[in-house]
Amino acid sequence: MKLIDKIHDGYMAWTDRLWLRTDTDHEAAPPRMAWIVLGLTFVVFYCCFFYGDTEPLINYEMNFWAAIFRENGGPLTFYDYQMMMVRGEPVGLGVSGGNYATYEYLMYVILGIWGLPLWLIYGLKGLDPVDYLFGRIYGKAVFAVALAICIYLVYSICLELGLSKQRALWGAFVFLSSALVFVAVAMDGQADAIGVVFTLLGVRAYLRDRKGLFLLFFMLAIPCKQYALFVFLPLLLLYEKNLVRIAVSTAIVLLMKIPQGLLFDKSSESMMIMHDFNKQIYERMTVNGLPLMLGFVPVTIIVLVIPCVIAYLHRVPEDRDERNRYAIYLPFLTLACLFSSFESSSYWYLHLTPYVAIMLVYNTGELRNNFILETAGISAMLFGHYGMRSWPYDPVWCNESVLGRIVGLKLDEGSNLMAKFATAVHLTKFAPACYAAYIVIIAALLIINRPSRIRVTEGANFPPYAYIRFAVNTAVCFVPVVLYIFAAM
Q1: For a Cys staple, 59 with which of 80, 82, 98, 404, CB 3.0–4.6 Å?
Q2: How confident is the model at residue 415 (pLDDT cuts 50, 70, 90)?
Q3: Are residues 158 and 361 in contact, defined by beta-carbon separation less than 8 angstroms?
Q4: C-alpha separations of 167 from 102, 111, 172, 465 in Å
Q5: What span, in angstroms and rounded, lies between the C-alpha atoms of 251 and 243?
Q6: How much of the chain is helix, strand and coil, in % rounded to 5?
Q7: How far apart are CA 411 and CA 415, in angstroms?
Q8: 353 close to 381: Cβ distance less than 8 angstroms
Q9: CB distance 367 to 184 below 8 Å
């Protein structure tokens, strides 16, 4: 019996070191094995999905260079060149098909720089990198690199908030293990992660009182994704009450709009297409309204104005701790309300995720409630998407992935396995209830994490909550992969 007891005690000590403790501090950082499992999980999701909207992004990486090196081409011909490629007009060495260019030019410069190796390997030979496994993996990897930078910035922002290094590492772990990160980057492979990088750089500069860098990074963030503007304005209004300086600062941040307007002819067909696309996004964002004034007032505008008014009416924070609490809460409030006010794409929630992750490790006075509510709320939202917006999660997107190469199954594009699954398990029927649960839970999180309620307590016990949340998120996001594997059996 003594031998058995020794074996048992040794095993328990080993698992304790492996999963819970890596140093002698009472609040240990996530252990190495936890990071390894999380990293492998992300890689599995990355290798199991190749979403249809990722292919046009890789096309942009290629056609950026094809536009430059074609006859009578150049960097400023990209929009027109991409339009010709979408329409199948054989010009130069570009990749046909894909989508029209609807981002601002800065995004295409970033994608083009990343895509240069693909151009050298495939483009010069007139090949489409999407036809090759390495081309798909590398082309999509730009978003994983952007995510890695985001992870570091979440860690860095936690340090700026005065959290310990160990707790900051938990913030990074919680961010990476979010179901919204799995969906937006590993599965859907969307460009939002690039915009989030600049936004987080701006927030960190704000916390460091580097006002010039704060303006500079948001000047770069807004052309990448317009949602950065909704983070910038409340933060600006929190510390600046002079209307002239508010107007000047906002104008500086929007300066990147000027080169876009000067370099590209607004009356050209490609620019009109971009304008129409942005108009469609605005209409989508403002589709829900209240019967006020003339009969219809967009809910989105209301929920965006409210945080700005709150920030402006609030006195300038007297101490650093108060300023820090508002610097995290205001983006959380604004983006949570924004993405609850209209039918948001699954990957847009990535813009909200850093502030949720930071709040989970920042307000440890509500540690248990925060982890339980966040896990339940995001799961409810994803189940609602499975029921009502099934196409981004359909197993058909496994066809061209590494998993698809291994399994060898090519699902028909009209198979709609996720939609059929959602109908069979009644997710389609109860999707509105799932969305309602998400709204209520987000509202509860906003209430219990308001700045006056944020408390940093000692000895926070992160592992059980973080690991259970990670397991639940993995299980929820793994549904499309499981459906694909079952279809192959």
Answers
A1: 98
A2: confident
A3: yes
A4: 40, 33, 9, 14
A5: 12
A6: 75, 0, 25
A7: 7
A8: no
A9: no
The two structure tokens encoding residue 487:
């279809």
| Residues forming beta bridges with residue 289, ordered by sequence position | 298
Contact 343, 243 (CB under 8 A): no
Closest CA to 367 of 457, 468, 471, 438: 457
Query: Token pair of 293, please?
Result: 């004034």
CA separation (Å) from 459 to 25, 28, 200, 448?
A: 10, 9, 27, 20
Say whether pLDDT at 225 is over 60: yes
The letter for the amino acid at 30 is P
315 HSE (CA, 13 A, CB side)? 4
Is 22's pLDDT higher than 90? no
pLDDT at 266 over 50: yes
Q: Is the pLDDT of residue 489 over 80?
A: no
DSSP H/E element including 164: none
Containing 390, the helix (H) or strand (E) segment is none
3 pLDDT band, cuts 50/70/90, is low
Average pLDDT over every residue of 228-254: 94
CA distance linking residue 130 with residue 118, whole number of Å: 10
Q: What is the pLDDT of residues 63-95, one digit of tens each?
A: 999 999 887 788 889 999 999 989 887 777 778
Q: 282 is written with which tokens?
A: 């605005």
Report DSSP letters for 452-482, one per residue: GG----SS--HHHHHHHHHHHHHHHHTHHHH
Phi-psi region of 155 (alpha: psi -120 to 50; beta: other; left: phi over 0): alpha
Range with the lowest mean pLDDT among 164-173, 192-201, 336-345? 336-345
**CA-based R_g, the chain, Å:** 24
Q: Which residues pair with 298 in a beta bridge?
A: 289
Say if residues 478 and 186 touch (Cβ distance below 8 Å): no
C-alpha count within 13 angstroms, C-beta hemisphere, residue 85: 26
pLDDT digit string, tens, across residues 278-296? 999 999 898 988 888 777 8
The predicted pLDDT at position 262 comes to 83
SS3 at position 297 = strand
- How is residue 50 written in tokens? 């190749």
Residue 488 tokens read as 């192959």
